[in-house]
Amino acid sequence: MKSVRPHRFPSLQRLQAQSSHAGEAAPLSAEAYQQGWDSGHSDGHAEGLISGEAAGFAEGHAAGLAQGEAEARLAAAARFDEKAALIEQLLQQVQRASDDYQLALRQEVVDLVARVARQVIRCELTLQPVQLLALVDETLAATSQTNTAVAVHLNAEECQRVIELAPERVARWQLVADPHLAPGECRIHSAEMEADAGCMQRLDLCMDQLKEQLLTDDAAKAEE
């Protein structure tokens, strides 16, 4: 038969005292304090380095993007200006070519008008050479010629035909057949003056005025 021993529970006061002593932190030694400091410093340094690297990378990345964008804009603007200058040069060349073409075209038109006019004048004088006498009267009236001793030089063929067709009108002048004058040409000589009363001289004057007017119109359009 086993013996039974009574168990004594610790007193409540003793349990409270043990619990109070267990809750109080034991004082740290200098070595433990240093180890804690070093560990905290190391951990803080590592965390700060990681955080700083992340922040620096983000800031550098943003700055790099901004700089790259600015440089790309400058490069694009430079290329645009270069292309724009090239296009401007091409437009100026096209404009000059167009102006030269228009001028040449106008010159050809003037030359064509002059050739047609000369042909018409020759045909008219061939049919009615007496019309030259009207030019002589007009020239003498414009110069206020008073001397009746006037020599009218005409193309040899036209001079002969005028004498045959209007002898009464040429009796007051001295008609001279000049082999050096082309058909339609007429020279007036007197003691007081010399004048050109020919058709071609008047035609050339009209053509010169027409050319000058065309050049004036071109200059006005260029200024616009």
From TrEMBL:
Main location, first listed in the record: cytoplasm
Transmembrane parts of this sequence: none
Key word Coiled coil present: yes
Annotated localization: Cytoplasm
Record InterPro entries: Flag_FliH, Flagellar_FliH/T3SS_HrpE, T3SS_Stator/FliH
Presence of keyword Transport: yes
The entry's keywords: Bacterial flagellum biogenesis, Bacterial flagellum protein export, Cell projection, Cilium, Coiled coil, Cytoplasm, Flagellum, Protein transport, Transport
UniProt domain Flagellar assembly protein FliH/Type III secretion system HrpE: residue ranges: 84-204
Function: Needed for flagellar regrowth and assembly.
Protein name: Flagellar assembly protein FliH
